[in-house]
Predict the structure.
Amino acid sequence: MALYAMGDFHLSFTVNKPMDVFGSEWKNHVRKIEKYWKKYVKETDTAVITGDHSWGRNLDECREDLGFIEALPGRKILLRGNHDMFWDAKKTERLNSLYEGRLSFLQNNYYTYEDYALVGTKGYCYEGKDSYEHFEKIRDRELVRLRASFESARSAGYWKYIMFLHYPPTSIGETESGFTKMAQEYGAEQVVYSHCHGKARYDDSFHGEVDGIIYHLVSSDYLRFKPERIL
Ligand SMILES: [Fe+2]
Ligand SMILES: [Fe+2]
């Protein structure tokens, strides 16, 4: 048994959105994901896929992409990314019942791996794309969702946590954030995030140990499409 993570699959089986415009490493990226996933992840393993699953704008346009993920070996837990238009955070329960026994959607809830609780939310960082006030509003909402995830696990008796975000835990130049502080507060052992792709963005946030917590960037291109072992 093992726990793996990788994010930013950016699938587009239904909508036409080739990824190689983002760099040569994205050429045939779906085939690479499938090849390495099948090489590393066993049917008895658990994997958290950290968002930006599909370019589809609604569930109909995402069905094939989610079907591709479903067909990969192992138990798959999905986190929401900024491009996941098919997933209304408030309607996560609906997705969970629709895909029951096939895919699990992590939002305002938690899943378990051995004696660990897997908690998380999309997160947010400031990228200069919106006003700072708007950034603060979205970030604060995400912090509420993250706390709900931690609290649901804690009230069920879990005290060991792995925390997942789609966005990096800090904005460029920050040495801490509401997200890193919450990881500290609950004693998360590891924080796993993606969203940063393209070489220019790989060092936007933390790598390795910071204040006793291990941080992992798991964007698919950063990992060269090989899922990262977390536990
Ligand atoms: Fe992405
Ligand atoms: Fe993203």
Q: What stands out?
A: The helical segments are 29-40, 59-71, 92-98, 132-155, 178-186. The CA atoms of residues 58 and 86 lie 4 Å apart. The longest helix spans residues 132-155.
